[in-house]
Amino acid sequence: MRWSEQTDVISVLRQIPAYMHYGVVSYVEDGAPVGDFLEAIISNNLVSSFAAADGDNVLCIRAYADLLYNHFPSGSWGSRDAYKEWIAHKAAQRKRDELAV
Asked: Which domain holds residue 91?
């Protein structure tokens, strides 16, 4: 089952703007880079998160914290290094998967 298909994840995703779902899911499942706001959230940078948030997202910071702390895979968030390493990890995983086919 994909991360985004888990009932508990779906429940929390409903608490953030729908236009953010693709970025969140693509990052977790595929290691896709995200925009400034999500990168700040994922990197655990509170000040930059608020600075980059639009009017909808600023109201959802608590839901993002819940999503990260309770539902993001271990090692995929918490610092800028963790953010970069997750993207690299997923790229390497894709490459291994392609070679296995």
From this structure: 3-100
Residue pLDDT, tens place only, 2-54: 999 999 999 999 999 999 999 999 999 999 999 999 999 999 999 999 999 99
Sign of CA dihedral 2, 31, 91, 82: negative
| Distance separating the N- and C-terminal Cα atoms of the chain | 20
The answer to whether 24 and 38 have CB atoms below 8 angstroms apart is yes
Q: Report the C-alpha gap between 51 and 40 in whole angstroms.
A: 9
Residue 17 near residue 41, CB atoms below 8 Å: no
Could you tell me which of 42, 83, 33 has the C-alpha nearest to residue 64? Answer: 42
Task: Compute CA distances 89 → 12, 50, 65, whole Å.
Answer: 25, 28, 22
Domains contained in the chain, number: 1
Write down the pLDDT at residue 100: 87
